[in-house]
Amino acid sequence: MFKALLIDKTDAGYGCTLAELTDDRLPAGEVTVRVAYSTLNYKDALAITGRSPVVRQFPMVPGIDLAGTVEASEDPRFRPGEAVVLNGWGVGEVHWGGLAQRARLKADWLLPLPAGLTPWDAMAIGTAGYTAALCVQALEAHWAAQGVAPGSGDVLVTGAAGGVGSLAVRLLARAGHRVVASTGRPQEEAWLRALGAAEVIDRATLAAPGKPLQKERWIGVVDAVGSHTLANACASTRYGGAVAACGLAQGLDFPATVAPFILRGVTLYGIDSVMAPRARREAAWQRLARDVDHATLEGLARTIALAEAIAAAPDVLAGRVRGRLVVDVNA
């Protein structure tokens, strides 16, 4: 028997409960993992609450992230006792995910846990940090092609007090960039500066409809917000700059014009963390293991028990959670 959050949809309605399940309920896969930690991401919160049709088959164990130890493997790349990490691949949406004490998964979805990271560290980073690393990698490749050196101008991070934003601030500052953090939580200014932000601005300056072209400021942007915020970020990006878009906290819409792209040569990169190829994933995780230390993660994340995740989901959706929530599935 193992404990898991289980989402089901019946004639009585949609609901998520803490359940005890038997191993024969686990889905098909080459590798069985004893999960140590998972996380509570925005997508997980949508799945748990049912506020968006994230889950595409029922019943479903949510959890798009997990870290743990291989118990059994039919794939020679993974051996019992090996520590592994997983993000994305539709886990928690179409295949049972990490908010459980056990998981059975396709071997192609797993990565060895990078040296220097514990399972807790990996989940304090989670999909949020992994996505932040993908964004930073896209911007750095763009800057390298343009001959732009770190410190050449301001880099904007929106939604900076959230999981993606806070880790993007850390990675960019560590690489020598001057980071401007945008947030709706002014009480987090000291924390964001401790992560490396040189300046903190109110998200209201970006959240309302703006002009198609605005004063040039940013050499790059990591945007986890979307909607008017993304449109304004593009409109104020410097000639030849780049924007990495990975989120929709403000909205799925993009109320912009083509002006920044055809008059200033701005590049908009769409960052997908779910289906990113293995080589890109490995590079992102190696970067995170190098640049995000355990002490930083302790300030970024707090740990909750598996049973607490259901009640915490609405807080995640409402933006009331700073940084990351790590879920101890065995607590």
UniProtKB/TrEMBL annotation:
This is Acrylyl-CoA reductase AcuI. It comes from the Bacteria. Transmembrane segments: none annotated. Its EC number is 1.3.1.84. It comes from Tepidimonas sediminis. CDD domains: MDR_yhdh. Keywords: Oxidoreductase. One of its GO terms (molecular function) is acryloyl-CoA reductase (NADPH) activity. Residues 15-327 form the Enoyl reductase (ER) domain. Gene3D superfamilies: Medium-chain alcohol dehydrogenases, catalytic domain, NAD(P)-binding Rossmann-like Domain. NCBIfam families: oxido_YhdH. PANTHER family: ACRYLYL-COA REDUCTASE ACUI-RELATED, SHORT-CHAIN DEHYDROGENASE/REDUCTASE.
